Amino acid sequence: MTTHTHHDDGLVIAGKTYRSRLLTGTGKFRDLDETRRATEAAGAQIVTVAIRRTNIGQTPGEPNLLDVLPPDHYTILPNTAGCYTAEDAVRTCRLARELLDGHPLTKLEVLGDQKTLYPDVVQTLKAAEQLVADGFDVMVYTSDDPILARRLEEIGCVAVMPLAAPIGSGLGIQNRYNLLEIVENAKVPIIVDAGVGTASDAAIAMELGCDGVLMNTAIAGAKDPVRMARAMRLAVEAGRDAFLAGRIPRKRFASASSPVDGLIG
Active site located where (predicted)? Predict the structure, then answer.
């Protein structure tokens, strides 16, 4: 299990330390200005970009995301959203590395079903092995299977990102015991990816001991995305503090807040 202290509680991914434990997506916003304002409100330092859907320079003359989220201010995390085979995912990662001047950090996701967007774990394992061998720092989207999470860590992934519920569903944390099992046995950061709908979901993920939360739809799809981004930032911070503070044990019956020993009479 990843250990931390109050005084040095940064999120370390591939040797780099980040203050923020909230990672945000850049799709589904009304325009690039809203993307920028929501990202700033979230306090995110790592922002994920769907290479197959977002222009970061591969389409000259069109609006470029990097104009509003410059790489000297943010860690750009290219992802392989929309890929359904290991080959497509590896090809997409190599394109992103070229566009980002050799940037090795990537988010791998290989989908297996268009309806649920659940990962194809067989293709994910295959792609992860190829990308790690090719020098990429792989953050990997996966199911909530603790055995699979351990295998991806053994392959060399720098972060494992299990879903909490299907992508974009907003159902919240549906699998807390699976997540606990993954967190308690991990030596790399565990970042909840997919399923968060509102601030309390993010807080629960952090209270479970997850190292961070990545979200897009929960912010971009809100009635006020910028305000929701701020709420998510506060929720992640509160959940992390609560985890580090150590909650009281659950009891079936009440207990007095003040000790009863030594009371007169």
Answer: 107
pLDDT in tens, 112-154: 988 888 999 999 999 999 999 999 999 999 999 999 999 999 9
Q: What is the pLDDT of residues 196-244, one digit of tens each?
A: 999 999 999 999 999 999 999 999 999 999 999 999 999 999 999 999 9
3 half-sphere exposure, CB direction, 13 A CA radius = 0
| Residue 168 assigned as binding residue | yes
218 is in an annotated binding site: no
Q: CB count, 10 Å around CB of 3?
A: 4
Provide the whole-model pTM: 0.90
Q: How far apart are CA 127 and CA 131, in angstroms?
A: 6
Catalytic residue among 28, 107, 115, 251: 107
Inter-residue contact 164 to 173 (CB < 8 Å): yes
| Contact in structure between 107 and 139 (CB atoms under 8 Å) | yes
Cα(11)–Cα(157) distance, integer angstroms: 15
